[in-house]
Amino acid sequence: MLFDTKVALVIREDLASWQKINVAAFVASGIAASYPECIGEPYADATGNDYLRLIGQPILIYGADRAALARVLDRALARGVQPALYTEEMFSTSHDAANREAVRQFEREKLHLVGLAIRAERKVVDKIVDKLKFHQ
């Protein structure tokens, strides 16, 4: 099935494995929270156990260095695409309000980005993530 939209996560490649997984989960949750129409129906197994709904389309995960993350953010904002983001400072916070304050203390050009998530029309996402490779 070909979707009209595309979901892309861009994760900084030099993070520890646990950090990459954590960042991916957090920024993907931003997509789920902001685009409820991308969430599929609940799951159930043959035994009758019910499971939570998931994002109903593939999520592409790209790797990037600091410069590439900044470029992705600039491209997204220039195209009117609002990303979910995660910054280095958020690793040392313990709750949502502290995360927001950790981001608020920096101007966009000085954010210490470690991950972004975007959802937009396929061609727009392709232009935003142009030249990035899938995460290894």
Question: Secondary structure elements and their pairing?
Answer:
Blueprint: E1 5-12, H1 17-34, E2 43-44, E3 50-51, E4 59-64, H2 66-78, E5 84-87, H3 96-104, E6 113-121, H4 122-128, E7 133-134
Parallel strand pairs: 1-4
Antiparallel strand pairs: 1-6, 2-3, 4-7, 5-6
Brief overview:
Pfam families: DUF2000. This protein has 136 residues and is of the alpha+beta class.
Could you characterize the architecture of this molecule?
The structure is a single chain. By secondary structure, the chain is of the alpha+beta class. It has a single domain (5-134), classed as Bit1, CATH 3.40.1490.10. 35% of the residues lie in helices and 24% in strands. The chain has 4 helices and 7 strands, in the order βαβββαβαβαβ. It has helices at residues 17-34, 66-78, 96-104, 122-128; strands at 5-12, 43-44, 50-51, 59-64, 84-87, 113-121, 133-134. The protein has a 5-stranded mixed beta sheet. β2 (43-44) and β3 form a beta hairpin. This is DUF2000 domain-containing protein. It comes from Ktedonospora formicarum. It holds the Pfam family DUF2000. InterPro entries: DUF2000, Pep_tRNA_hydro_II_dom_sf.
